[in-house]
Design brief:
The chain is of the alpha+beta class. The chain has 3 helices and 9 strands; from the N terminus they run αααβββββββββ.
């Protein structure tokens, strides 16, 4: 290669290096708009939650709300189911068959619950009986029980339960307070249960006697013998 060609090639290389150096310096002196823009975008994301984040929060709230409802509804369902199966025994009264004898009124025991009951026994007790004209009064007297134990009563069945007064009085009875005790064993249960009811006699204006139910368990009363 001649010296002339070598000088031309060296001049071209130096010129190219000078152009590259100038271009590099020009690029380094420009402001970094990309970095600032990214920082603004990050700050905007921090201030305003995205739609996906709001949806996740809503779904989480619904989930915990459903768990709370389940925790409350489950015990209520158990209690409601238990109360629906609790034996429901009631006793009602009719007018006396003999107007002068209030104890001739037949009482009716009903199994109003959804299950049957077994080994039904009925007891009647006089809390107080008084014949004012004869100056007669009896208290805590166990009545004659003419009803033998019943092997069972299905749901909806009824049973007549008389409550005869064992003492004959020459004068009409003017005051009477009696109580019934019914013991039974519900279906699918190994133990016995009991229900107690109280009735108070009232004499009407026409001289007829009527029995009215009254509270029993929360008043002082003699225990059943």
């Amino acid at each position: 290669m001649s010296s002339k060609k070598l000088k031309e090639w060296r001049a071209a290389v130096e010129r190219r290096l000078s152009e590259l150096e100038h271009a590099f310096r020009s690029r380094s002196s420009k402001p970094n708009y990309t970095t600032n823009t990214s920082a603004q975008e990050v700050q905007g994301h921090q201030e305003v939650p995205s739609k996906s984040t709001a949806a996740n929060l809503w779904m989480t709230s619904l989930k915990y709300f459903g768990i709370t409802i389940s925790l409350v509804a489950t015990p209520l369902g158990i209690v409601t189911g238990y109360l629906a199966l609790v034996p429901k025994i009631s006793i009602s009264q009719n007018l006396p068959l003999a107007p002068a004898d209030p104890f001739s009124a037949p009482f009716v025991v009903s199994n109003d619950g959804p299950l049957g009951i077994n080994n039904v026994r009925i007891f009647c007790q006089a809390i107080k009986v008084r014949a004012e004209a004869q100056n007669f009064q009896a208290e805590s007297l166990k009545m004659q029980n003419f009803i033998p134990p019943i092997s069972g009563m299905e749901a909806g069945e009824k049973l007549s339960a008389p409550c005869w007064f064992p003492i004959h009085t020459r004068e009409p009875i003017t005051e009477a307070d009696i109580a019934f005790r019914i013991t039974f064993r519900p279906d699918f249960v190994p133990w016995e249960a009991k229900r107690e009811f109280r009735f108070v006699m009232t004499v009407g204006a026409e001289g007829k006697t009527y029995w009215y139910p009254e509270p029993y368990t929360r008043i002082p009363h003699p225990p059943f013998p």
